[in-house]
Amino acid sequence: MELAGRNCEKGGKGVWNRKTNLFHPCARNRFLTPYLPGYSDLQFVGPGHPLFEGVVERVLREYGPSLRQGAVFFNAESSEPTVLWLLKCGIEDGRGNLIGERLFAIHKTASTCRKSQPYALLDLKPPESAVDVPREVRETATNEDEIIDWSLEAVTPEYFGEIEKRRHKELAIKEKYVRKSLQFLIGESIKKVTKFDQQLREIRDENDPKRLNIVGNRAKEDARRNELSQRLKDRLEEMGQEQHLSEKPPEILGVAVILPAPQEVVRSVEGMETDPEIERIAVKEAMEHERRQGRKPVSVEEENCGWDVTSLQDGQVSRYIEVKGRAGVGGVALTPNEWIKAQRFGRDYWLYVVVNCKSQPELHLIQNPAAKLVPREEISVVRYMIGLEDWRMAAES
Question: What span, in angstroms and rounded, lies between the C-alpha atoms of 112 and 80?
Answer without folding.
Answer: 12
